[in-house]
């Protein structure tokens, strides 16, 4: 083996260890875990509050739209951090690229405001 291939051995070992740990934990918990079930143990329990009704209640599409928009704009803001850290090294070219990026971000933001995607009715 060449010396470049030797550098992958720790990665392979870590992968085998991780997979072995997961498989071993699943097998051991299935064999050694408690087997007693009852109606009270099988009942759904969430934060000390008794479950009432069906868990499949419909949510408003607005909820999911706001959640997706939040994630979208949050990820776009993450791109600002490396730019701010390397602001001086990027120079005027980096500044122009960031202006284009921010302009596109603002166009999208004004579009969702115009479509009233963030208005709760």
UniProtKB/TrEMBL annotation:
Name any one Pfam family assigned in the record. Answer: Oxidored_q4
Identify its membrane topology class. Multi-pass membrane protein
Which reaction does this chain catalyze?
A: a quinone + NADH + 5 H(+)(in) = a quinol + NAD(+) + 4 H(+)(out)
What keywords appear on the UniProt entry? Cell membrane, Membrane, NAD, Quinone, Translocase, Transmembrane, Transmembrane helix, Transport
Q: What class of enzyme is it?
A: translocase
Indicate the principal place this protein occupies in or around the cell: membrane
Question: What are its E.C. numbers?
Answer: 7.1.1.-
Tell me where it resides: Cell membrane; Membrane
Annotated HAMAP family: NDH1_NuoA
State the family it belongs to.
Belongs to the complex I subunit 3 family.
What is said about its interaction partners and assembly? NDH-1 is composed of 14 different subunits. Subunits NuoA, H, J, K, L, M, N constitute the membrane sector of the complex.
- Job of this protein: NDH-1 shuttles electrons from NADH, via FMN and iron-sulfur (Fe-S) centers, to quinones in the respiratory chain. The immediate electron acceptor for the enzyme in this species is believed to be a menaquinone. Couples the redox reaction to proton translocation (for every two electrons transferred, four hydrogen ions are translocated across the cytoplasmic membrane), and thus conserves the redox energy in a proton gradient.
Any idea what this protein is called?
A: NADH-quinone oxidoreductase subunit A
Recorded source organism is Flavobacterium frigidimaris
């Amino acid at each position: 083996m060449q010396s470049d291939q030797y550098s992958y051995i720790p990665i392979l070992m870590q992968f085998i260890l991780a997979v072995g740990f997961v498989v071993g934990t699943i097998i051991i918990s299935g064999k050694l875990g408690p087997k007693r079930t009852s109606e009270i143990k099988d009942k759904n329990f969430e934060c000390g509050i008794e479950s009432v009704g069906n868990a499949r209640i419909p949510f408003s599409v607005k909820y999911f739209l706001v959640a997706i928009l939040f994630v979208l704009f949050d990820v776009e803001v993450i791109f600002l951090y490396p730019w701010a850290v390397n602001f001086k090294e990027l120079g005027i070219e980096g500044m122009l690229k960031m202006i284009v990026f921010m302009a596109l971000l603002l166009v999208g933001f004004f579009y969702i405001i115009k479509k009233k995607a963030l208005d709760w009715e």
